[in-house]
Design brief:
By secondary structure, the chain is α+β, with helices and mostly antiparallel strands. The protein folds into two domains: 135 residues, Fructose-1,6-Bisphosphatase, subunit A, domain 1 (Fructose-1,6-Bisphosphatase, Chain A, domain 1), CATH 3.30.540.10; 124 residues, D-Maltodextrin-Binding Protein, domain 2 (3-Layer(aba) Sandwich). It has seven helices and 14 strands. It has a seven-stranded mixed beta sheet, sandwiched between helices. Strands 11-10-12-14-13 form a five-stranded mixed beta sheet, sandwiched between helices. A two-stranded antiparallel sheet has the order 1-2. Strand 8 and strand 9 form a beta hairpin. The protein starts with a helix and ends with a helix. Bound molecules: adenosine-2'-monophosphate and calcium ion. Calcium ion binds next to strand 4.
Length: 269
């Protein structure tokens, strides 16, 4: 695996320290679109990460949220979110992270998610397990939806909020509840660490989920589409769980979707 992971860890720690420092200062917020925020921390963190990646791995492709990356002919591609949880960051709500995932021929082979506020460093390499601050982590053994704590997210401008609210409504009543903390990468790490039994989101970019989904599978969990089809890094939706409650949750998603579409078809939606 060369030194991909150790270099990614070094870079994520450096970028994490930068965003944690900027978190203490007045925020410089601008808008990509209404409700879609970006801060100077996103931009400065991304510039730092891209510079470091280019130094260490010249020629490898970089896809980064704020647009600073570049495609190349390389079979290696870094997916970079320099600040996942930007809305939280901008409001002073301390739930955000830096995340880098490395794909080889489209498959994620290494990932790091760093939460600088809690000093939690999540790492994984394909086939070698998932780790939190160097300690092996595993998904939770809970096997009933009724005993599960779940998480989801509602990114700005998704056209499917109404459907996700139906999932939220149904699953809230069937579980111990649903958290909506605002950082998809950290939510995925919470599944990997056994804190949440399941997490889903309908509209995510590859940089939000590259590292976190590898963490989940390396921790023994399962990642798929909402109704159990294969996980696709470049698709919008993701559903990750400890594996034990996966089928039960897929059934709920399928049922709710059928009812929602039926209601819309009758003009009630
Ligand atoms: P961000 O903080 O890096 O923007 C919240 O549910 C999750 O959705 C966060 O991980 C957030 O990442 C992501 N998100 C925010 N805006 C988005 C957008 N326009 N499209 C897709 N995902 C988005
Ligand atoms: Ca981001």
């Amino acid at each position: 695996m060369e030194n991909f992971l150790s270099t990614a860890v070094e870079i994520a720690r450096e970028a994490g320290a930068l965003v944690a420092e900027l978190f203490k200062r007045p925020k410089e917020i601008s808008y990509k679109r209404p409700s879609d925020l970006v801060t100077n921390a996103d931009r400065r963190s991304e510039a730092l990460i891209i510079q470091r990646l280019r130094n260490h791995f010249p020629g490898q492709a970089i896809v980064a949220e704020e647009g600073g990356g570049a495609q190349t002919s390389s079979e290696y591609c870094w997916y970079v979110d320099p600040l996942d949880g930007t809305t939280n960051f901008a409001h002073g709500f301390a739930v955000f992270c830096v995340t880098l995932g490395l794909a080889y021929r489209g498959e994620v082979i290494a990932g790091v998610v760093f939460d600088p506020i809690r000093d939690e460093l999540f790492t994984a390499e394909r086939g070698s397990g998932a780790f939190l601050n160097g300690q092996r982590i595993r998904v939770s053994p809970v096997n009933k939806l009724s005993e599960s704590l779940l998480a989801t997210g509602f990114p700005p401008f998704a056209s499917n909020h109404d459907l996700n609210i139906q999932f939220y409504f149904r699953l809230t009543k069937l579980s111990h509840g649903i958290r909506r903390a605002g950082s998809a990468a950290l939510d995925l790490c919470s599944v990997a660490a056994g804190r949440f039994e399941g997490f889903w989101e309908l509209k995510l970019n590859p940089w939000d989920k590259a590292a976190g989904t590898l963490l989940v599978t390396e921790a023994g969990g399962r990642v798929s589409g909402l109704t159990g089809g294969p996980f696709q890094l470049l698709a919008d939706e993701v559903f990750a769980s400890n594996g034990h409650v996966h089928d039960e949750m897929c059934s709920v998603f399928s049922e709710v979707m059928a009812e929602y579409r039926g209601a819309k078809g009758k003009g009630e939606g």
